[in-house]
Specification:
By secondary structure, the protein is an alpha+beta fold. The protein has seven helices and eleven strands. Strand 6 and strand 7 form a beta hairpin. The longest helix is centred in the first third of the chain and has 17 residues. The two termini are 26 Å apart.
Length: 246
């Protein structure tokens, strides 16, 4: 997520925003400064941030410290010399908001998708209010027949906060779908840094080397989970392998 999605949400609270942004905002100067910062970050990934994103950027920045973790049940943790090699977890069933994007680059797809999800989270929904943010943001990658190349379409999703699970708000954007997913059991390995097609592909290969060949793990689909502000030098991400059975 996504490279633009969490790009500024941690750091801007203290370093780049005053408390006045909530109580007494200075409309043009503050809005322009925030937007310019996001545009500069996005440009490094060949993504443009339109003027209409100013409102969602402000809303997400104000609420950047209030993130609800996805509910899961731990299964096992595999370590070697104090390092976590991988964990197994079962993520609970629930409603997700999802966008599928097929840009030229993986990082462009997840960035464009998350901007749509940002607008949905920030009042462009049938509840007419800020919904709240959950972490991680999860992107679903499909592989081509060669097993090494990503398909162009990438699905980026956020789990709806607990408050809205029983009665999900509906999006105004027809490209966003609210889907109910059954529980999944995953094998998760942490990695740190950027999430591009190159780095994600490398992490997939590394995890296969660790777990070994098994028919119980899917090889045609993977998930990438992003937890932290991508501006952090060693931000936390995970590659998720999907088990065929719970």
């Amino acid at each position: 997520m996504a490279l633009i999605s969490l790009e500024d949400l941690d750091g801007l609270d203290d370093e780049q925003l005053d408390d006045d942004i909530t109580d007494n905002p200075e409309p043009m100067e503050e809005d322009d400064r925030l937007l310019a910062h996001w545009q500069a970050v996005a440009s490094t990934h060949q993504v443009s941030v339109p003027q209409e994103m100013t409102g969602p950027i402000q809303e997400m920045t104000r609420n950047s410290q209030q993130r609800e973790p996805l509910p899961f049940t731990p299964v096992s943790c595999h370590e070697k010399m104090g390092e976590v090699l991988y964990e197994e977890r079962v993520y609970h069933a629930g409603h997700w908001a999802s966008v599928t994007s097929g840009e030229d680059l993986y990082e462009q797809s997840i960035s464009m998708a998350f901007m749509k999800l940002m607008r949905f989270i920030c009042k462009e929904n049938s509840a007419g209010r800020y919904l709240g943010m959950t972490v991680p943001v999860v992107s679903h990658v499909h592989m081509m027949e060669d097993g090494n190349t990503f398909e162009k379409d990438v699905q980026t999703s956020i789990f709806l906060p607990a408050e809205f699970q029983n009665n999900p708000p509906q999006p105004y954007d027809p490209n966003i779908t609210i889907v109910h997913r059954e529980p999944i059991r995953i094998v998760a390995r942490p990695f740190f840094g950027t999430t591009t097609e190159e780095t994600v592909g490398h992490q997939i290969n590394q995890l296969w080397e660790i777990v070994g060949v098994t028919d119980n793990l899917r090889r045609d689909d993977y998930m990438v989970a992003v937890y932290e502000n991508p501006g952090v030098p060693r931000r936390r991400n995970e590659i998720w392998f999907i088990r065929r059975n719970l």
